[in-house]
């Protein structure tokens, strides 16, 4: 089902285009409701600067890697920072401070990754969360993972992420397309647009009339053994992006398996993956997000690909971000 939806959103084939046009009237209703909510909501500004990394596409765009890179540069400057997110994939919490020892089923995979570096909080109520965070650690900056569409909280700077390969798809809003809101109004609200990977959909030239700092970034593996043959599996917002990293780095990947975003692997699924890998003399590899969702006792024999995002002129970008 997920592949069919992705084809409707991103494929140029006539059949999928026709399906998207059939769904378009529902998209119009979605757009109307979305912007009516925005009209009647007021953004509340707090005393702590909030830096938001978000997107308008449904699915993975490289937010986590970008936030981790921003965190690294803030820590080099000895800034007191924290991350706030909703903790998708975990249980809903009105407010919770995350520990690296928490289970992904409790707090979500992304929260655990951030908590290894900085104080991390998950909350279903961002306004409540920022008040509690202010009392807890009084940070210099709050880094908001997602939340670009949330108008309850004022964001001092907005970074929009988009995958260069996929772009904005058919440029339609849900459910006819992958977008949470219209492209141009979103770009005008943001200060930065980061295109991850090659800009194959010509985003830069298509929207060069909008005043926004645009950067092109790449996601690179920290280490990978290119002498191995891999069975790669993942359950993230854009599984193909993970497989592409392996292939683009000259890895031999005869088999791939895709799962839904934030998928929690059953014992049977993991045993089956290990069986297929063993029968085909392959090594198992997955993403860092997937790895934290695998029970510790089942991680043996599974490699975790750690990656980092490469941003051009990172010092200049960080200077603009905080000023």
Task: Jot down its keywords.
about 325 residues, 12 helices, nine-stranded mixed β-sheet, alpha/beta
Q: How would you sum up the major sheet?
A: 9 strands, mixed
In round numbers, the mean pLDDT is 95
Amount of beta strand? 15-25%
Put simply, the count of helices is: 12
Q: Tell me the helix content.
A: 25-40%
Number of strands: 13
Note the gap between the termini.
44 Å
Stretches where pLDDT is under 50 for at least 5 consecutive residues are none
Instruction: List the strand order in the largest sheet.
Output: 3-4-2-5-1-6-7-8-13
Shape: globular
Which sequence of SSEs, written as H and E, runs from N to C? Answer: HHEHEEHHEHEEHEHEEHEHEHEEH
Account of the 3D structure:
- The chain is of the alpha/beta class and 323 residues long.
- Helix content is 37%, strand content 21%.
- The protein is built from twelve helices and 13 strands.
- The chain has helices spanning 2-10, 14-39, 63-76, 104-107, 109-115, 126-136, 183-189, 203-206, 239-248, 267-279, 288-293, 314-322, and strands at residues 50-55, 81-85, 96-97, 120-122, 141-145, 157-163, 192-196, 213-221, 229-234, 252-258, 283-287, 302-305, 307-310.
- A nine-stranded mixed beta sheet has the order 3-4-2-5-1-6-7-8-13, with helices on both faces. A four-stranded parallel beta sheet has the order 10-9-11-12, with helices on both faces.
- Helix 7 (183-189) links the parallel strand 6 (157-163) and strand 7.
- The longest helix is centred in the N-terminal third of the chain and has 26 residues, at 14-39.
- The mean pLDDT is 95.
